[in-house]
Amino acid sequence: MEYNFRNLFAVLTFCFFCVKTKERRNCFSADVLTPACPEFFEVLRLLFNSLLTLKKSASFGGFQGSGKTRTATEFIIGCYKDMKLKKPALILDNEKGSRFLIPIFKKAGIEAIAKDSTHLKDIITAFDFLNKGEIDFLFIDSLTKIYYRFIKDYKLNNKKQRMTLQDWGTVLPAWQEEFSDRFVEVEGNVCFTGRAGFEYEKEEDEQDSEGNVTKKGQFVKSGVKMKIAGETPYETDLNVWMQLEKGLSRDHKPTQKNVSYILKDRSDTINGKIFEMPSYKNFRPVVRFIQGLPVDEVAGATFTDNLTPGNDLEWMQRNLQRKIEVEKIQGVFDLYGLGDARSKADKQLKAALIKKVFGTTSSIEIEKMDAHQLSYHKEQLEELMKELANAQPEDPVNFINSIEIGELDLSLQYEKSVA
Question: Degrees (nearest 5) of the Cα angle 266, 234, 203?
Answer without folding.
Answer: 125
